[in-house]
């Protein structure tokens, strides 16, 4: 699977928190502060149009305002929240393809992509598919 990184809050077991706020493992299906990560059909299915959970090939590719402030020594100007962490999953090159069953990486730029459903699925199913990757994520802030 391609290597992807994402800033998320962590649970007590050092794995990402599963949630739909944009700071965890999941997508905003309904807008949070005016932002939704996926488009939904009237029946609640996720439209497979390239939108999904935002990821980058390495945490140093993140915008400065997302990188946790404690990493300013490694990333000058980092201003992210203290309760977030840089998580990584996978090891192959950052390119389009399967991330896991029911999830694909779709790049929209060399240093950004989204984990998307490869076909129409319910929002609940897509959230579950993302949550099933929880044990695959590790913190990488080196």
Model description:
The protein has 142 residues and is mostly beta strands. It has one domain. The protein is built from 1 helix and 9 strands; from the N terminus they run E-E-E-E-E-E-E-E-H-E. It has one helix at residues 123-131; strands at residues 4-9, 45-46, 53-55, 84-89, 97-100, 103-109, 112-116, 121-122, 138-139. It has a 4-stranded antiparallel sheet. Strands 1-4-9 form a 3-stranded antiparallel sheet, with no helix packed on it. A two-stranded antiparallel ribbon has the order 2-8. Strand 5 (97-100) and strand 6 (103-109) form a beta hairpin. The mean pLDDT is 96.
Task: State the helical fraction.
Answer: under 10%
For the largest sheet, list the strands in their spatial order: 3-7-6-5
Mean pLDDT: 96
The number of strands is 9
Task: Write the element-wise H/E pattern from the N-terminal end onward.
Answer: EEEEEEEEHE
Q: Tell me what portion of residues adopts beta-strand conformation.
A: 25-35%
- Indicate the multimeric state: single chain
Task: Give the structural class.
Answer: mainly beta
Number of domains: 1
